[in-house]
Design brief:
6-stranded mixed sheet; about 10% strand; 11 helices; globular; alpha/beta
Length: about 325
Amino acid sequence: MGTNSPPSRATSNPGSDYTRKSRNMRGLRISADDMWMPSSPMMNSRDFKFTVCSHPGCANSSAFSEYYSTTLRAGFDTCTNHTTTDSVVKRISTVNTTENTTFIFYDIEVTSSNEIDQLSAVTVTGEHIDLIIKTSSRRNRSPIISKFTPMVYMMMAVEPRVAMERFVMWVNMIMNKRTNGSGVESDVVLVAHNGMCHDHVMLLKTMMLWGMNPPRWRLSDSLPIFKIVTRPDPHDSSKLSTLANIYAPWYPHVEHDGLSDAIALKNVVTAGIGNWQLACYVFSSTSEYFITSVGLNTFKVRSPLPFPTTSLQ
C-alpha cells in the first residue's frame, strides 16, 4: 500500500508571463530585468535621468530594458523604432576613434536568479579571460561548465567581487599593453551583443552591489548595428548563433558558453561589419551616461555619514 508524499511547494517561473506581469505591478520596478531595481524606500526620484525618445508622439524611454531602448542607452536621442541610417550617419560625424582605442568583446551568463555565473572576454588579437563565478545555487547554463564535477567547480569558481576585480585588472592590462602605457580608462570600448539591455546592466550592477565604482569605459552594443545598418530586413534574425553561422561558419560556436559566445561575437563583428571599429564606437556611450540612463546610479556607493563633509574648525 503506497503512501502519499506531501505536495511540493509551488514556485513561480522567473521567465513566465504571469510572473513578469506581476512584477510589473510593483511600484518603481520598471525594468524587464526587474531584479536589479532597488525597492522604493531606497530610491530618490532625483536620481533618475532617463532619456525619452525625441520623435513626436513617442514615449519610449531608456528606463525599460527592451530592444527599443538600445539606441537611447547608446547616446542617441531616438529609440530604435525611430533611429534611421541618416541619424547614424549624422552621429558618425561627431565621433572618432584614436590609436589608443581598445576594443574588447565580452559575454556574461546568468542564472535564473539573475546572478552572473560566467564572465568571459576576448580581444581582437585573441587574448582572453574566462571567469567562473560562485552563485547562491549552482545552475550553470554553459554546456561546458555544467559538466564540471563539484570538486573542479569549487576549485575554479571565485566570489563575485574577486571576479569583478580580476576582470578590471585584465582589461587594464590589455589596455596598457596595447597603448604602451599611454591609455586611459575611456579608451576601452566593451562590446556585447544586446549589451545595452543585458550584459552591461548586469556587469555594472554586480560591481556596484559589491562596493566597486565601475571604470569609465565606453559600452557598445553590436545588436543595433546589425538590425539597423547591416541587416535591416525585419525578417532577418540577428541572434548571435544565426550571425555566427553566416559570418563565421568556420568557428565551432557553443551557445550559452561565455567564452565561446565572446569569441563568436568577435568573429561576427570583425567579419560582418565594414569599418567595425567606427560602427561599434557610434553605437556606444560612456559608462557614466549609461548608468544614469538606466537608473543604476541608485546603486552608487554613498557616504554613510548623514551630513556632507564639513570642516570642523
